[in-house]
Amino acid sequence: MNYGELAKNNKIRVAFIAVLLATAILGFKGINYGIEFIGGVRIPVSLEKAVDAQTMDSIVETLKARVNTFGLKQAVVRPLGNTEIIVEIPRAEPEAIKHIEDILREQGHFEAIIDGKQALDGSYIIQNAVGGAQAEFVEARNDGGATWEIHFAITGEGQERFAEVASGKFGYPVLMFLDRPENAVIVAPRSLVVGEQGNEALLQEALSKEGDDIKLVYYSEFEVEGIGNKTTAIVPASLAIDEPEIYSALLGAGFEEVQSLGEAPEKRLVVKSEEELTPRYFNSGTGGVFLSEWEAIGLMSAPTLQTEPIKQKQITSYSITGSVPASESAELDAANEIRLIKSVLSGGRLPVSTTIGSYYNVAPQLGEQFTYYSFIAIGIAVLAVTAVIVFRYRKIILIIPIIVVNSFEILLTLTIIGAFGTLDLSAMAGIIALIGTGVDDQLIITDEMLCGRKEEETTRRDAKERVARAFYVVLTAAGIAVASMLPLLLSGIVEITGFALSTIIGVTIGVLVTRPAYGAFMEVMFGTTN
After folding, report:
1. pTM score, whole prediction
2. 3-state DSSP assignment of residue 356
């Protein structure tokens, strides 16, 4: 065996470099285990109505984009029939669960309003130009709170629309909303909404929109007839206790209590906390007070129009700003707000309304058993394959390379799936299956080389030709394997897509990395002359 020649072979070098990189990546990043292995939570999402397969795919992809933008790439979003979606979050902290629920509740409708007219909506946002390293900012305030800012870009058509509405509006606020309620009325006490330092004129400006003003009715002025044809009533959580007569009147008028604007009754009684119903103001320091946030109606920020944009149809950058109250985690809370806004702006709007159910836990103890038994299965599979190889060849010089190369293939596949995706139970099954299928190709190469040993001496040229013949069979088998897995991968059934993906990745690694390296090893071993 010419070990110096082996060390100089580029195919073998590539395989060893890939293995070293995979080892380093696993050591640095670890493995992202799926919910079956480490436990976590499942959040059910109910759709307003049954949808076809194409619409369901659109909703699933939109939710995936939102959740992934939030930073949970190991989360799984999968359809369940035509009216349900399950979101799985492995090993989630309560804080992360809350933010994910907030993301899922958002319907994703962004709009900017100037002087009661819509200047922008989400269709003008360039989705891959929302936030980023130089477009997201968090700054601590002296009072212990924090402010945040995120920039986004709009299309040339959006710039034209914005410039048209903003013409002559210098100094006006640009009211930026996410999921502004439609055909809505706010029923609340004046002391809560207006407060001591509130400005009713600013509130009415925020509630105004051409063709869809939000009505504001105080407890003291409430009459059920005054609601008119409004279909969404936004009320404080304490309404039933503080004002049972108003609460009963709203129920009698056909309103049904829900917890978010995404729920589907014809008339919705949307319950909000006192904090959400209380507008927030910004003091400019020069005597000017401006309305900056009002969660109950989706107002995220209200920057003042400092210049009148020129109508020139070009991509333009805008920003949304906000603040969080003083706390020990204020900067982290501000960063989470940016991620939430980014996820909704990047993820687009859902084609139907959704209702978010209560999440439930998947016990990590069960996951530990899955992990244990999975690696036991890998060990047994390796031993079984080794026994077959020993029985067939009975030569250490052949047995060890086959097992080592197969182990490399499993390591590389595990790294790609576990470090850059999610290693769930179906993916683990695919990896276990690769232990057998990967050895098959090496046996084809080995047998082809052994067939030529009847001759006294095998030249290097003969060895290359035999490896090439073996690779024709290997490539054909790989193509068939990938083709058979593609329908499973594209089926959208999460329970089997992991198996299909791991199989395709493993076969691809084999064809590009490990099989060529093993073939080169065989050439050096059997090719004794030139």
Report:
1. 0.53
2. strand
